[in-house]
Structures are given as C-alpha cells and as structure tokens.
Design brief:
The chain is mainly alpha-helical. Helices cover 56% and strands 0% of the residues.
Length: 132
C-alpha cells in the first residue's frame, strides 16, 4: 500500500478476521456467503483475506478445512450408532451399501379356486401333492 505525503497509507485498511473462527465455520460446513455475512464483509474481501492469510483462495482452504468437520461428524455418528439402532442402520446403508432384504414367496397355483379360498380365509392352500 502506498503512502501519502503526510505519511498515512493510501486506501482502505485491510480487513482482518479471526483465523480460529474462520476455520470453525468451515468445519461446520458454512457457505462462503454465510461466513462473509458473519464477518460482515463481501465474499471478494473474504477471498482476498484467504489469499493473504493462507496463500490460497477460499475454495481451496474451505475444501481442506471442511474435511475436519466431516470427520468430526462421522465420529459423532459412530458413537451414536452404539446406542441407536436407527443410526446404525443408516450408517450401514449409506456407508457399507447394506440394504433391507425383501423376501418374495412365489406360489404356483393350478386351480384358481383354491387361491380364492386362501385369500378369503387367510389359510394356506393345500396342494394335491401335499398330505393333510
């Protein structure tokens, strides 16, 4: 930044943010707009600060820092899965590719009247091959 003949710097002073607060906001997956709103600045100002502070733009530092939040969330989910069957099922389906097993029974019916009787009474139909 240049200086005026009076010795005062030209232009507006650079905006500084708390690094720990910034990293914590990245950890909890706040968007760039939300972080800029919390710091009461424009996203361009936030991006320029990231370049000065970390030597990389917002998207690069966000990608790196948000991984800590994801790991923390995963750790919490695993702890919760020890006590909650619903969470254990959720993690199994989403992380391990597990699915609910759906069983289907196929029944061959030669005589439709026996099927109709079975549906009316909810009783199993006996085939001619089976003994009573």
């Amino acid at each position: 930044m240049g200086r005026k003949p009076t010795g005062n710097p030209n232009g507006r002073p650079l905006k500084e943010f708390d690094v720990k607060t910034f990293k914590n906001l990245c950890h909890i997956q706040c968007t760039e707009e939300e972080i800029a709103g919390i710091f009461e600045c424009d996203t361009n100002t936030l991006n320029a600060w990231c370049k000065r502070t970390f030597g990389m733009g917002f998207s690069e530092i966000y990608k790196r820092e948000s991984q800590f939040g994801k790991a923390s969330l995963r750790r919490t989910q695993f702890k919760l899965a020890e006590k909650s069957a619903a969470m254990a099922i959720f993690l199994g389906k989403n992380m391990l590719g597990q699915t609910d097993k759906i069983e289907q029974t196929v029944m061959e019916v030669e005589d439709l009247s026996s099927l109709a009787d079975m549906l009316r009474t909810d009783a199993p139909v006996q085939n001619d091959d089976q003994e009573a």
